[in-house]
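Session log. Operator J.P. requested a structure for one protein chain; no other inputs attached. Running the standard single-chain path with token output.
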Amino acid sequence: MRAEVIAVGTEILLGQIVNSDARFLSEELASLGIDVYYHTVVGDNRDRVEEAFAAARARSELIIFTGGLGPTADDLTKETVAEALGLELKLDQAWLEKLKGFYASLNRPMPPQNVKQALIPRGARLLYNDNGTAPGVYIEKAPWTVILLPGPPRELIPMFRDRVSPLLREKAGSVTIRSRVVKIIGMGESAVEEQVADLVQQQNPTVAPLAHNFEVHLRITAKGSSEEETRALISRVDEELGRRLGPYIYGRDQDTLEKVVGRLLAAGGMTLAVAESCTGGRLADLITNVPGSSRYFLGGVAAYSNEVKEKVLGVEKALLEAEGAVSRGVAEAMASGVRRLLGADYGIGVTGVAGPDGGTAAKPVGLVCLALAGEGFCRSREIFFPGKREAVKGRSAAAALNLLRQELLEGV
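Structure written below.
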């Protein structure tokens, strides 16, 4: 069954709200084995809603509208759909009484325009709304199933799960679609695609590369007759990705790099301190975004000036003068200095040229030096990150975490 979602609301087109309904519905429909082929957003305009509905009927069997079910004049989804399908609107007396009772509980008279929310296309099923005044509508008119849902997520989500999902599960039968996202750090998108080119060509499971901030994600999607079958299909491909990409894979699904590093530190009872120059606290912010990070993160120093590098971290002035602040030697001194200062098991040092100014021919914008210090060792690397200032800072923080991840995995 081919499906599409049509979101009605000028506020979405203007960027005033994010269309989170479409994402939720796509995930839920996939879990039912229903393929979503199109997302459409259309403003509160009757002609354009009608046009979008006509296009949807030409290519999809299941059409879900979100929004446009309110009591005002520009809420016109229900009226437009009913007219297009040749269905008369009739008053649902039970819903009207519910609306009257709702306003009576507020000691307010019901506005006359709210009566339109109790009008339902003839032959349709009213979908009870436990969290608002706009009921949903479920219409079966061969060859289409058309569902109208309120726009606010707090109303749409429970309505879909409680009222709509059971109905669609019967229609969809036993097909199940599941996905798993494999997350990769330290390898570029083109290099990853080259390694998995043959897997991307297969049909079930499918493998889709996704660029995501400073990482590459591979989404594995399988379709089967049961949960067990889809899990087995996904696991087979996941294992193959592990063989090909190995240490570049850091996690899956809800994992983040900072969560994975935190788990490794906590599991080993190890602690971390960071010294940052070009990232200006970005690395410490990432680490402390993880609940419970106080178990392993002792603190950090944003040593932006050379004076702070010297006085707080103990970086020698002669080293700064000889190699410059952006150098592997200084990064190592920062990592060792913050480790010693805070008494941590590991220290990270980050220094670089984030831009857009300050670059030279020898040390261009995007040049970053990272260092990791631990018991009896201090290692560093020099990396070049192209892009604007925010991108350089973000990539540097991610690369620093990955450097620590690789060290922790070696000890596992």
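Operator note: The mean pLDDT is 95.
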